[in-house]
Amino acid sequence: MTQHDGGWSQDKDTELVTLEQLYEQLNTMHTAGVAQEHAQIHALQAIESERRIVEDALRDLDMEEDNGTQEYVVRPIDEASKYAVPHLSHEQIQAIPLLRTHAEERRRMRALLSTPPWSARDIECLQTSVQNESLRQNTLYGTPEAKDWSRISVQVPYHTPRDCRTRWTMTQRPGINHARWSTAEKKQLLAYVDAVSIPSWEEAAAKLGTGRTGYQALEMYQRSAKRQVEWTPELDKALLQAARAVGPDWKTIAQKLGYPVSCAFQCHQRHNKLKSSAMVLGRWSPEEDAALRAAVAQFGCDWKRIEIHVAGRTGQQCRERWVGRLANIPEGKKKAARRTWTKEEDDRLRASMEKCQSWVEVAAQVGGRTDKMVRERWLLLKRRDEAQHAST
């Protein structure tokens, strides 16, 4: 059938029907694809839900097996959790390199990035696992004290062997005293620390005999039992005198002031504060230069000792003053020699530039010149050489 005057032919009608059928098929395929996508999402959620249930069930079974109990509880899988995806056994997962490697990397990275907090369930698993491991070691080897922390950590989710060992040793081990510290314990701890130069916190805890750990002893000493020095003007003066007499030996200084060696750090801090409050900036006076020369002659370049004998100046200031100026100026002279450079000095300067690492070393090789003077002279000689080379 054919229509004239611009009408559709039979071929056109057939083509239109075909296109409509194709469009309906595409819509049907799209709807089926969306439904399949939703089904896959639900299947993945069901897999994750069942995986968690299986992990909990396996952990409970392991705990019951170690305890010798034969009554196992198997949790039924909810009907809504069923899915039409084939289940992979543990052996099948281990046989797939990509899955096995990914799981190992995730566990290793989780252990490296952070230590997860200990929940009540984790602590319960740790205690039960340690008891079972002690029983196993005693049965096999007769040594209940020995423990395989790698084996223990398998039953404690998300905690490494080192994490389990630290938690057990520092917190969960039987016999640890978690009660409030008594006044007698604090006094006994302080007496022990005052009597030794370098305290051993494990020994301190053992001497207490109250079930404390070395970490608990250290924590208590740092928090509340550490003796505090009450500084007075008279004590500040005695501190400065003791520092001038013995140098930066703060343990000896603390003992000279009548305090235990544990107060050495407080003495050091107080001395730094006194120096900072009296620190002088700007030009050096002749008296300061004389004190610096005398200190260098006595102590060499030990700037920590030198700063104690040069009032108002820090060790860094003393070093910069000595290296930058006084070391190259003879005693009794107020400034370095301002004389014309000789050919011999220029030759020594050129030779020193090849083997010295700093301007201070160059000045020492030239003699009678400061590091600033030799640097300026070298730049001048360099410009002259370049100009002479350009003219030839």
From TrEMBL:
GO terms for biological process: snRNA transcription by RNA polymerase II; snRNA transcription by RNA polymerase III. Residues 110-172, 173-222, 223-275, 282-326, 333-378 form the Myb-like domain. Gene3D superfamilies: Homeodomain-like. GO terms for molecular function: RNA polymerase II cis-regulatory region sequence-specific DNA binding; RNA polymerase III type 3 promoter sequence-specific DNA binding. Signal peptide: none annotated. One of its GO terms (cellular component) is snRNA-activating protein complex. The keyword Transcription regulation applies. It comes from the Eukaryota. InterPro entries: Homeodomain-like_sf (IPR009057), Myb-like_DNA-bd (IPR051575), Myb_dom (IPR017930), SANT/Myb (IPR001005). Keywords: DNA-binding, Nucleus, Transcription, Transcription regulation. Residues 223-279, 282-330, 333-386 form the HTH myb-type domain. This is Myb-like protein L. It comes from Malassezia restricta (strain ATCC 96810 / NBRC 103918 / CBS 7877) (Seborrheic dermatitis infection agent). The gene is mybL.
